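Appendix B. Worked example

We walk through a single record from start to finish. Start with the input: the chain for Holliday junction resolvase, Streptomyces qinzhouensis, length 171.
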Amino acid sequence: MANPNKAKGTAWESAVRDYLNGAHGLVDESGALRDPFNPMNIRRVAQEGSKDIGDIHAVPFILECKDVKNPAVPTWLRQAEKEARHAHFPYGVVVAKVRGKGTAAGRAHFDVRTWTRVRTALGLHPREAADLYGVTVSARGLNTGRWYITVPLARFAVLLADMRGVFREVR
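Next comes the structure step. The output line below is what the pipeline stores for this chain.
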């Protein structure tokens, strides 16, 4: 891969995919998928150009992965939501790498509207959800379009399992 930034981004996407698959018991001890045809496997997807469908599909979430020095979370969240719509997934989330830390320390960012929909689907009061998933809130200024909710990637893995349980019950 000639572009070092592209290689860095691909490595982060792969690390997130592998971490979440491991956290959900979807891989064996060698790291291979237990069932390659399981629709619950977390997968990196091919880029789709102007109709991009996110970096990782982790049903019911599209994950847009970012490994950059200068964060632009509100912009990234708009991108993630757009890509979720393109892929016909209900939720778009950004997963950002934390410099000098392992994959589990990454940060999953939700816009306020998406977080509210997720929390409501789980049947959780805001305080209960915050305590359960280690939420931090970024609410700078009066422009609510720039506010967002953050959870550590390790807690996002738990939230993903909880959401998948809700979706199984609905079926």
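Two observations about the output. The longest helix spans residues 4-23. The chain has five helices and seven strands.
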